[in-house]
Amino acid sequence: MTRTYPLERYRNIGIIAHIDAGKTTTTERILFYTGRTHRIGSVDDGTTVTDWMEQERERGITIVSAAVSAEWKGFQINIIDTPGHIDFTAEVQRSLRVLDGGIVIFDAVQGVEPQSETVWRQADRYGVPRICFVNKKDRVGASYGHTIEMVRERLGANPIAIQLPIGSESSFIGVVDLIREKAIIWEDDLGKEPRETEIPVDMHPQVEQSRERMIEQVAETDDELTLKYLDGSEITEDELKAALRRAVIAGKATPVYCGSSLRNKGTQLLLDGVVDYMPSPQDVPPVKGIHPLID
Prior knowledge:
Shape: globular
Strand order of the largest sheet: 2-3-1-4-5-11-6
Radius of gyration: 19 Å
Largest sheet: 7 strands, mixed
Order of helices and strands: EHHEEHEHEHEEEEEHHHEH
Distance between the termini: 38 Å
Strand content: 15-25%
Number of strands: 11
Structural class: alpha/beta
Helix content: 25-40%
């Protein structure tokens, strides 16, 4: 079978999380924004692509893993949407064994939940590089910073915030890209055309502080960047992205994104993160098989 793209332009990823964190909702947005579907499916209405079983549509939960493919900016992204319920953990393990990378979704209100820990440990076990998506930023009580701290403390990870939310709860309208130092605003209901603009003036101090922290965290994962950072030399956007990609693939860091899948905010930038930081099949070691004992 002839490949559509060279192997380095493939991303084989899974979407993993606690139940109701928004895995299937996020998958539906990915399919919509990449042009694979022409309407957004709803978990509540039972019209999603990946929840195809009658029992899944009746209950509004994922029971078996489902694979879909999409194209984004010249890359082929193969996605497995996994169950979140603890009763179907075996499905998640089965998927993690063959994935090159993963998107871990967290509820911005609940933070790290019990099944979040379970799937994170499973990903650790199989050495799966990850990026995080703090979902449901539009809900009352949502906290981006608190969720990141929970990821650090409860999961023992090294989360690196590469975005800052603009507004919160009902006033959440967009994010600041800390690497490019640009604000991205979603203005239409479908979120198809995010507008890139300058960072709001009142956020400049927070952005400056957060960006400095981000650069420090990325530099700590790379010896050359550490020297540049200590010398006070400027670290370019390309150097930051290249070092962060190496750190993600090596399991040293986890970039953190935020948004609201249900409100159609944040998915396009998450796809950019998959392309920029998730490994291709060439970047990961082969899967280790298990040989049965023969008498």
